[in-house]
Amino acid sequence: MPRLSARPAVSLSTVRIAVVGGGVVGMSTLMALIGANHEAICYEPRPVMGERSAGSTRIFRLAHTDSELVRVVQAARERFERWSGAAGRPMLVDSGCVITGTDMADRAAAMAEAGADYELIGMGSDRLRIPVVNTPAVALLDVGGGVVDVDAVREHLTAWAGHAIVHEPVLVLGISAAGAAVVTSASGTAEFDAVVLAAGASTTHLAAQVGIYTPPLLAHHIRFTFPVVGSGWQSWIDKPAAGLSTYQHEAGPGRWAVGGQVDPAEVVWERGRESAIAASRRVIADYAARFLTVRPEIVDSLYCTTVPNLGDGVEFRRNGPILTVYGDNLMKFAPVLGEALAEAVVSGGTPTVASLVEDRTWSGS
After folding, report:
1. 211 plus 228 within the same structural domain
2. Is 166 in a helix, a strand, or coil?
3. Pairing of strands 194-197, 322-327
4. What would the pLDDT profile of 192-237 be if each residue is shown by its tens digit?
5. Per the confidence metrics, is the pTM higher than 0.90?
6. What pLDDT digit, counting tens, does each position of 73-104 carry?
7. Residue 337 resides in a domain
8. What is the number of domains present in the chain?
9. Among 261, 262, 234, which residue's Cα sits nearest to residue 248?
């Protein structure tokens, strides 16, 4: 695996492609471009994989209500395993993922259509391992699900592409009269053949500068971590007909992370970050005390911004040399997204969800 010190810093005078945003999607795209011997850089003012890609763990699941998305995650799993082999360190924890609630049947149908491995399990089954007071009557077990080791992913991507990071914010995006992509950052203006815009919460205002629409609304979201006795827990997504919808997973030995869909009025952007954190803390702490076997003591929290009602999936928009990507819960798709975006930004195409599972020849690891 290449080391950060093995590659010289890039020169803006020779780079032909820019990636704006150093989250997991931007870094995956940058690595794919470098692996295919393209001259590329990434603008990211903060440490890479912060904000929406932050944290040490995320849920990995094949269980979606759309069979095309199931196939994308199947392809992503193969790429994560390839990355793991190159890094000499596993990036997925194969604990499984439990699905309960109103869309369980739709997820099972989509997984069956895509040929993904799942089981329907009943109360009391030894196949169900979640720290809950009352075991669900029936659950879907996504056998190929589990947890992404985000620290391992971050280390791998940084080792491959960390030399190509420009730690500056992008202030303005534009398109020149000649059709080049124009990027203005803190240190000046540079022209590129093309740009991939994958800047998370900053995507909307930058995309608008080049005539690309992405959803403008933002909301606050916080997950909280509690102490738990035992280990080997499965990840869990619960969407009950009434009550709090949650996602939960083992965030490390003796640690259980819980996030939930808090009343939108409590986390709307205008309420402010601190108000949203306080409201979310009350709701999640009460839920944990009533329904989980964790100790009702918050030991960690992770804040990020989200786009309300976006849900699963990924969207692509292009105007000339600017290719924009946005979505929610994109960590599990990242290796496939990186390859597809790298290919599209070079060819001038625009990916679709269906195209993400096409075979690609790529020299990177």
Report:
1. no
2. strand
3. parallel
4. 999 999 999 899 999 999 999 999 999 999 999 999 999 999 999 9
5. yes
6. 999 999 999 999 999 999 999 999 999 999 99
7. yes
8. 2
9. 234
The CATH number for 171's domain is: 3.50.50.60
Is 76 within the bounds of a domain? no
Structural domain span for residue 23: 6-52+153-215+314-357
